[in-house]
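Hey, resending since the last one bounced:
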Amino acid sequence: MKLNRRNFIIKLFLALTGLFFLDVLWFEKYIIQWTTYDLSSSENKIKIVQLTDLHINELKSFHKAIARKINKEHPDLICITGDSVNNNRGLPVFNQFLGLIDNDIPKAVIMGNKEYAGKVDINSFRALSKNHNGRLLINESLKFSTPGRSLVIIVVDDFIGGNPDFSYAATEYDNSEEAIVLNHCPEYSEEIALLNETQKVNVKLLLSGHTHGGQITFLGKAFYKPGGSGRFLRGWYKLNDIKMYVSKGIGTKYIPIRMGCRAEASIFYV
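The structure tokens again:
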């Protein structure tokens, strides 16, 4: 039986349209891209997982898959770099999510602009993090150690909703140690690099999020970047001697789709 050309074109169009919506509404949102980077020359590597921009308000199957992957990888530390929740209603769900992750894995948690915009109760957020072997850090540092290695985790407050102060956060830093900096909005990273010309912190890695990698992109170009992104979109950047990674993050905001910008979680060996 001959296939009518018009019918063929219609069926092809419908098939391609279906694949497009399957991609932007499901695959790129829920099938997480796990990226791995080894930055360490040490035999005693520290394994870190970065999660960012969860925007969690409902526990879904892909969140459970993320927790299973983390438990399988069993990193030395999880860095949760902001916009975990949009408001106080998200806290119980975030609590459920953290409850799926092995409690013996330490977690460094930071504020993002959405926690501030949604007036998230900081004391509740701090207590929730503590219950899951985590610590909410705001313009402060934390010494982190594993057998044979130690790092200083330096956290700055959110650039949009908070009051970031890298110099204050690094006040107790020992120049003999390597440091990892956690900073939600990458625009402030320019200031960090400038301040560090005199601060002289040995920054091994700077982790940011916030941009969602553009969330909706075409040929690598983003249709929209949120304020606080600066010139950064996603992936690796170098600011003086500082290596910075901007994650595409997990969740979505405003429009519940991703196009050309698959959701991401990353593993770093430092």
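The chain has one domain: 31-269.

Sorry for the duplicate.
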